[in-house]
TrEMBL record, chain A:
Residues 35-66 form the ChsH2 rubredoxin-like zinc ribbon domain. This is Zn-ribbon domain-containing OB-fold protein. It holds the Pfam family zf-ChsH2. It comes from Nocardioides immobilis. It comes from the Bacteria. Residues 71-141 form the ChsH2 C-terminal OB-fold domain.
TrEMBL record, chain B:
GO terms for molecular function: acyltransferase activity. Gene3D superfamilies: 3.40.47.10. It comes from the Bacteria. This is Acetyl-CoA acetyltransferase.
Amino acid sequence: MTTTANTETAAPTQAVHWDLHYDIHLGETWSQFMEGLRQKKILATGCSSCVRVFVPPQAYCESCFEPTDGWRELPHEGTLEVFTVAWHGFTGGPQAPYAIGAIRLDGASTLLMHWVVGVDFTPGADVREQLPFGTRVRAVWAEERTGQILDIAHFEPVG
Amino acid sequence: MKPPIGRGAAQRAVAPVHVVGAASTRFLPEHDAMLDELVFEAVYKALRECGLRKQDLGLSVLASMDVLDGRSISSGLTNSAAGGYLGDSFRVEGDAGLAIVCAAQAIASGDVEVAVAVGVYNPERSGGAATRRAFVEQVSNLGFEPHFDRPIAMTANASYALQAGYGLVDRTVADYATLAADEISRGGGLERSLRRFAATQDDVLASVPIAWPLHELMLPAYSTGAVAIVLASPARAGRCLGRDARLTGLGHATGGYTWPGEWLTDPGATSRRAARMALAQAAVSPDQIELAEISAPTPALHRPYVDALGVGGETTINASGGLRSNFPGLANGALRLLEVVDLLSVRPRGTTAVSHSVDTETGIVSEDVTLLVAEAI
């Protein structure tokens, strides 16, 4: 532990570091989804009461409060509902700039958040003009897949 | 027993709770202080204002968050400073608005006669504004779902930017800048403001781009400090010095997660649920609200929140400059009520106001909203 003076306020502080490792459980539903990703499959669950299709898959429908009933495979394409370009990252995060999008896969009722490519990060560029909302996008698979959401490397514009 | 005064008294669903004390520390970009020192200062001043002592408190409720405080039970440090030594106390990891709701409910239910709610915010990360923002965003990222949203760098600012982008269908980035400039300028001359200047639309658009389409001056003016609110039952308030306001409605609601998408398509939904609850309790309609402090973290959320509360027209909204002028993180809910109570002190008896606050840990996603209805007495 070291005591230092903060350069902005001259306030003395002591550096403290937390280093905690977690093994966060996936559960049955998400384990199956992640195994699907390893095989280049995007799997969803559905609710027969309200006919919503969930991806990420859900074990139960939060609205109907009924168990979901069965799996289906979704296409790898969908619609980019909205995206943003983060010009500033955060401690421990990816190097900025990067683009995050909300994608509605064909056949899904829900949004999947993921990286989006195809945006010019030049300062001052009109990012929305380059990638209008509603653009068709498709999943680009990582070469090495380990059963995690980044098995989809990112989404890219179709065509 | 005399009937309660004010609008809607005959239909009111809950007993009113009086605000008898309200005080804060100074608001600074970073406090050179231990958390308990900030909490003590705010609670001490709020109790002094109403002539009460620590021994009069039946309950202390603190709003703080371990991961920001760098202590795994940070309330262990601040409990005594909140007046909780050998008393009844607990902590909520969220916005101070929720602490006020908890304290007020304890009084309304008859459990205690006097309670204090206090929020404290001084993230334990030094090194300048950019470093602190990167730290708060890191904490925000940890608040997101770890398998799907955390790996792709979702944070509060990313969610706000996504919502602001989605809202560009019927508004422009220039509209956002104009609203931000108006709020900064409105608060620029006020003592509690962090941004002590007037701003133009061009100033806002020239400020640092954070996440498209948001610029730095569109985001809250982050400050640090503590705010305490002392509440009392009507009977106990009659024997107190201090403030002339009471809470007549307490609303609280929580939003959903990323995948349903309501945070994009209907960002006012959670506020609407909280408002419905609070206004029903207070038996007032939106058109009776004359003053409102609304916590919109971005200009893109201003209109959805205003519409959700149903205010507008003659309502004075964010006379303080809102979050564009001062946003003390988890203490914000108490600051918004402090602003409201200050405004009510010079208004006629029966004037109705609302204090709206949100937690910002995961931005507009899973948003936690509190709405308090206050009345001048």
